Amino acid sequence: MNHISFLGAGRMASAIVTGLINKGARTPAQIACLGSATDTTAADLAARTGIAATNNLETLLAGAGTVVLACKPQQLAQLDASLAELTRGKLIISILAGKRLARLAQTFPNARNIVRAMPNTPGQIGAGVTAWASLSSLAETDRANIDQVLGSLGRVVAVEETQLDAVTGLSGSGPAYVFEFAAALRDAGVAAGLDRDSAKQLAIETLLGSAKLLAQGSEEAETLRDQVTSPNGTTYAGLQRMAARDFRGIIKETVLAATARSEELSRD
What we know:
By secondary structure, the protein is α/β, with parallel strands linked by helices. It folds into two domains: about 5-160, 3-Layer(aba) Sandwich (Rossmann fold); about 170-265, Orthogonal Bundle (ProC C-terminal domain-like fold). About 50% of the residues lie in helices and about 15% in strands. It has helices spanning about 10-20, 40-50, 55-60, 85, 100-105, 140-150, 165-170, 175-190, 195-215, 220-230, 235-245, 245-265; strands at about 5, 30-35, 50-55, 65-70, 90-95, 115-120, 130-135, 155-160. Strands 3-2-1-4-5-6-7-8 form an eight-stranded mixed β-sheet, with helices on both faces. Helix 2 (about 40-50) links the parallel strand 2 (about 30-35) and strand 3. The chain starts with a strand and ends with a helix. This is Pyrroline-5-carboxylate reductase.
């Protein structure tokens, strides 16, 4: 049963569908999503990718071995009670932020297994990283399926569920921190005398190149930092100012604040 059904057709669902098709992991005929009379999101996704869109839960789930839960987190409590039986024996993959496995098991009590995943927004272009945890041990075929479905967004990392709040604080929310840093670099370049367009391009390319250099090598970030830094040079002057303002401490507080908020939301 290689068919996959999506409860939700937003950006992340669209990214998974596109990734699965582009990588040849599924054909459009093996994918369906749930639509509604008041929202054209599912119909638009179907028109763009060739997958099926339906307003009927039974039609959606018939023949599907995997169900991806990709609606809004607050919609979980509003899902049709018939899903408990309609998802019997199916693998549930949830990308709902803050919804724990125990809570998901209440909605899908007859699923053969449930996976809670935390993707991030670069997954929209296949450059994301997704951490996941399962309710119980996964069969080998389901593990391979997880790698395919979540791998459509980029890299995949298995963790314990107790670590998913920290994952949310780091990689889930992390792109926003990077975007904020990019904006800060741009604005600093303007303050130093560059025009805005040049400052923006220089900031983006600096981030891209630095990330690639870090990813493709085996050196720690500190080692690469030191390779750029000459004693009493320009980089040293900048780093000294960052240290004086406790840049690392600010980032630590940022991630811990997001992690704490994720923990709060998970208790709802």
